[in-house]
Structures are given as structure tokens and as C-alpha cells.
Amino acid sequence: MTEELKLMGANRRDQLLLWLKESKSPLTGGELAKKANVSRQVIVQDISLLKAKNVPIIATSQGYVYMDAAAQQHQQAERIIACLHGPERTEEELQLIVDEGVTVKDVKIEHPVYGDLTAAIQVGTRKEVSHFIKKINSTNAAYLSQLTDGVHLHTLTAPDEHRIDQACQALEEAGILIKD
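== Transcription repressor NadR ==
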């Protein structure tokens, strides 16, 4: 690979980072590929390289998001909760959480071979929940919790603890929250 091509790659990654920083909503790999006039696979590789340099980019079901320090601090309260339900109740679970003004940051399971597996979800509204569910259904992807008979963890974030308490109460009333 020539020095010029490496520079082009670095310039492209700089531009990707700029687009992500400027965007008010997630950008898909396809959207970024079209803007950069490259394949989606090139974008996936570029994002991986940026993440390897500790650039705070997360992949969500809606696309890539740049998480700057201000955005990360905007949600002050954070809590990990344990849940149990079948895949048919995932939409209900997520809606109960977001209806209280809480964002579901991720889902985590403890796999018997691989250990902890975590996937970013980043849903904070019913619209985002709907998009997430549609994406799962349209791709025939399995929920991580299906690997653990429905047991899973979520990291929740909100402007305050009270909202997370309200979401937990709603989940408990629905029989989804695992309490100790």
C-alpha cells in the first residue's frame, strides 16, 4: 500500500469522525459509505480502526453514534438491572423502560463459553424501540437473551435515579425484573 493510499484512508476516517460528530442522529454504514464513495465494508473497517484508537463511537441498531464527553455526562444516573423474559416480551420490556425517560444502553449475558457478551442497544424512545424490534425481526437475528433462557442484564441511563426507579417498578409489576 502506498503512502498516498494510507493518507487517503486517514483522511476518510477523519471525515467519518466529523460526520458522526455533526450528526444529530445515528448514521448507518450504508449512509457513510455513500457519502465517502466507498463500500460499507470499508466503513466497518474504518470504524473498527477508530474504535481501536479509543474514539468513542458506538454501533447501535440505528447506526453509528459518536459519544462525546458532554453526551456521556448528560445522562448522570446509571444502573445495571437483571431481567428475565422470553423474546416475545422484549418490546414490552424496552417500552416500559423508555416510557419513564430512561435509555437502555446495552444488553449483557453471561455465556458459558465466551463469558460476558455485551451488545449496544441505545434506545431511549418508543420510536427507537420500534426500529430496534423491526431490525431484529427483519434480519431474523436472535436476541442475546435467548442464549441464556431469557436471563440478561441491561445498563440503564437517565438524568436522575428517580426515573430509573420508576422504570424498575414498572418492570417489576410486569414480572420482568429479577430482584435479589
